[in-house]
Amino acid sequence: MLYLDHAATTPIRPQVWEAMSAxxxxxxxxxxGFHASARAAKNKxxxxxxxxxxxxxxxPLEVVFTSGGTESDNLAxxxxxxxxxxxxxxxxxxxxxxxxxxxxxxxxxxxxxVEVMGVDSDGLxxxxxxADAVNPSTAVVSVMAANNETGATQAIKKIADAVxxxxxxxxxxxxxxxxxxxxxxxxxxxGVHLLTLAGHKxxxxxxxGVLYVREGVNLEPVSHGGGQELGRRSxxxxxxxxxxxxxxxxxxxxxxxxxxxxVREARRRFEMELSNRVPGLAITSHSAxxxxxxxxxxxxxxxxxxxxxxxxxxxxxxxxxxxxxGAAKVSHVLSAMGISDAEARSSVRFxxxxxxxxxxxxxxxxxxxxxxEGLL
Length: 376
Hints:
Radius of gyration: 21 Å
Number of strands: 12
Order of helices and strands: EHHEHEHEHEHEHHEEHHEEHEHHEH
């Protein structure tokens, strides 16, 4: 199979699997204990925390291990809004991941003011509009660094700077799950207080993620229990997952130049061939997007039909967010961008990853053209 659904999940890198497998016999203890097995696990956990911090340019104690991107987003949004017993406000965008939007709507039911900003035709928010929506009661602004469906990239640093000029002490959160795949992220340079990552998007294991929490930021815990992660996230640590995530982050960082070169060329070949052969083909968020996303609209072609044909031909792609329930549901991201329901139902997301090489773009284009036979 030619796998072009890396934005949903991506294969574990072999080195990551090796690092995790090595712990099965000597790193399986519960790191909160006091015996030798627990100490061994604790050492591996804290070593992983240091490695993650090094990649992000932060302090180890600013790294909170979670179960993935959804939990990290929920902890960031709910934790910031409810910290200190308050019911602070949330400002976010209409194109955010469901984890952010649904967390915000949950808070709204509890009396927290929520402002959902519109986006332009590329899926982008205006930093000045975001800043204008902030007031002293706003606890957190959450805007994703790169959209999981279209790859549209937001000006996070400009948003952070604009919000910082407003009165109050509003926190800046960004879901960087997709952005980290292709871009170097340093939290100080971005100006954020909170940042979400998920291991399985860049060659790590599923079931483990990170929430960067800047020193001094107070969050109300979302899950309550034994007080792990300095009380910010209770629950027994997934030590193997943390080790695998740290290794995957290091590999993604060291492989980034090669990744961007190969993926950019594969996508160029893919989109150029289809643009030349498919009448009316449209590329979503063409002006500002990650290198590994290719979100295309095939006029008059039902995306579900196309996806079934592609699957039979051995090409894996997606109609949109992997977290969106209901195959026939129109993407809220595309709707927010002003794309009609009919256009949305003719849209397909092709997403490249660390396994991609330039010839994959040619092969993918050939398979798409085969699948389109009789549909155009």
